[in-house]
Amino acid sequence: MKKQDQTESLQGEGQGQGAKERFTSSGFILAAIGSAVGLGNMWKFPYITGLYGGAAFFLLFIICLLLVGLPVLLAELAVGRGGRGNASTSFIRLSGQKIWGGFGFITVLGAFVILSFYAVVAGWTLHYALLSFTGKLFEHQDFSVLFSDFNASWMPVFWQFIIMLLTGFVIIRGVSAGIEKFNKIFIPGLVILLIVLCVRALSLEGAAEGVSFFLKPDFSKLTAESVLVALGHAFFSLSLGMGAIMTYGAYVDKRQSLGMATVAIGLGDLIYAFLAGLIIFPTTFAFGLEPSQGPGLVFVALPAAFSAMPLGWLFGGLFFLLLSFAALTSTVSLLEVPVAFVREAFGWSRRFSVILLTFLCFLVGVPSALSLGDKVPWLTFGGKSFFDWVDFVCSNIVLPLGGLVVTLFVGYAWKGAAEESGLTAWWLRLWGFMLRYVAPILVLLVFLYSSGVIRF
Q1: Is the pTM value of this prediction over 0.70?
Q2: What count of other Cβ atoms lies within 10 Å of the Cβ of residue 6?
Q3: What is the pLDDT of residues 218-231, one digit of tens each?
Q4: In whole angstroms, what is the distance from residue 186 CA to residue 318 CA?
Q5: pLDDT digit string, tens, across residues 172-200
Q6: What percent of the chain has pLDDT over 70?
Q7: Domain spanning 3-450: which superfamily?
Q8: Separation between Cα atoms, residue 368 and residue 389, nearest integer Å
Q9: In whole angstroms, what is the distance from residue 261 CA to residue 36 CA?
Q10: Domain layout of the chain by residue ranges
């Protein structure tokens, strides 16, 4: 262990990782927004919005964001800053009971596993950005076959490795010189790309029909299922339940208003989702494409649209570069979760922790990278690929449980939550009511629905 790391370890003993490193106010908000925005908002949010009534669903999503997303987000930030530790030890410090640390460890493990397959998808975006900028993407006529052939090769493993390498490079530099500096560059870059692509999409002939489909409310499509879908997306789009926000919270200065930060993060996530819809729907409608859920929209349908528009190689490249930016800001937050844990649990240096976990996460992700092709047939079982199984377990079981633990802990077990939140009396009563009586029930319903217990 390096001398500097030994000194840091002694200084931080008994105080957690948050005692040694700090975000600036703006750096923290940008990093947290970077953790929240991701690939899901680009291919899932437009689809479910169109499916469940356009603007009617968008309004429902905002309501769910207020009822569940923001209260739980503030709870995670408060636990992280109050405990000044990783996503496991913060619970123990604040409660004095190890059982809460065990629940917190589930989120640490969840972040590690999520990163293992999320890096695979992030690698796809980098690969397609390169293909588009070089023009090689449009040498093919059947983009479905192109995507299948790509996943049947070893290339997904290579690009997954590149993503993990870039992520590790950022994390190894620390909180201020690594995570904060990275997000101060990438988040403004992401905003610029969003605006450029949004303007281009809205200028396409036939774009107005897509905008109308996205923004025209159809309340007849709102059902009980749509409410649970909106709740789930409001929860997942903020990166809740995976320890990332809690870990970042440990690096927040005591002078930072957690209430204002929560609003800023939620607003950033909402704007990103809205602009994503203004890119996806005008583009798909302008070229007669049917918006579909998941990778098929981004890697099959949209390349066909880019190939048909002037300077399609440029706008296609910018689009996939946008996705790469969004993916990397998320992978950085995910890797910091287990890194913070092992540093505090074992006293390892940041450098050693990052190198070890980056390599291990890459290895764990290789089966996901290979399971969507036909090279390793045994990686598909029970009607799902290994990739799909890992995604299902993490998204539908681990994350809702993590969010439920946070709401119960802050609502019932932790006595210092009110002081740490910094809320005024009226907002504090409202927040407490939401965490005790509303959010746990709604998060539990999301868990039951996403895991298949409740069906419609």
Answers
A1: yes
A2: 12
A3: 898 888 889 988 88
A4: 14
A5: 999 999 999 999 999 999 999 999 999 99
A6: 94
A7: Amino acid/polyamine transporter I (1.20.1740.10)
A8: 9
A9: 13
A10: 3-450
